[in-house]
């Protein structure tokens, strides 16, 4: 196993990488924070995608989360990132960094698999949605509970990613209920390849990754790229900056962050 460090002396590694045969594993490793993603982790994920693209020995890429007291794939973005949003430039940086990581994952040349357990929320759910295959244990809780937590919104492109794996009705229901989806919910939409006990998750994921590694790589790549282009074809040319601005610069967003930190229910005003 190779360890990617934050660059701070004696700091805990935030991402681990491990090569298992032709399969490259990426392990988000902030278990005390339920693997919440930091800007450094986003940058490192970009580097790993570039490394995989340059290494013909890699035939599949797996993302998973380190287990702490409870299992977690990724509990969204680190709270310090959300607190920093005060201006249009701030939310643009936040959205652009997440989008760059998502696009790199979608563009990597090999099939991608998300091995999911526990919290898979916010940017964690987004990265899982960007993968080609999702395998989960019964403990998974997937979604974006933003309508009852911080009061921001998803970009149109991220909604398109979710719609592609969940369908329109389930995507809307997930956001409008602020409920996290279970393994059974996800399986019902076809978003999961299989559900396995948590103790079998790593082995089953490796088996599926090795099966993908034996298939024609150009067939897999062209299929996933064509489907991505079909999905993105319907995105509006004028974008969604007005929608993002309305949420991220609102009083409700600031109230949501404050309420989250103070462990109380937010008081929404629609302003």
Please characterize this protein's 3D structure.
The structure is a single chain. With 271 residues, this protein is α/β, with parallel strands linked by helices. The protein has helices spanning 39-53, 79-83, 88-107, 123-130, 156-166, 168-177, 183-189, 201-213, 217-233, 241-248, 251-262; strands at 2-4, 15-20, 23-28, 60-65, 72-75, 112-116, 119-121, 133-136, 141-143, 194-195. It is built from eleven helices and ten strands. The chain has a seven-stranded mixed beta sheet, sandwiched between helices. Strands 5-7-9 form a three-stranded parallel beta sheet, with helices on one face. The longest helix is centred in the middle third of the chain and has 20 residues, at 88-107. It starts with a strand and ends in a 9-residue tail after the last helix.
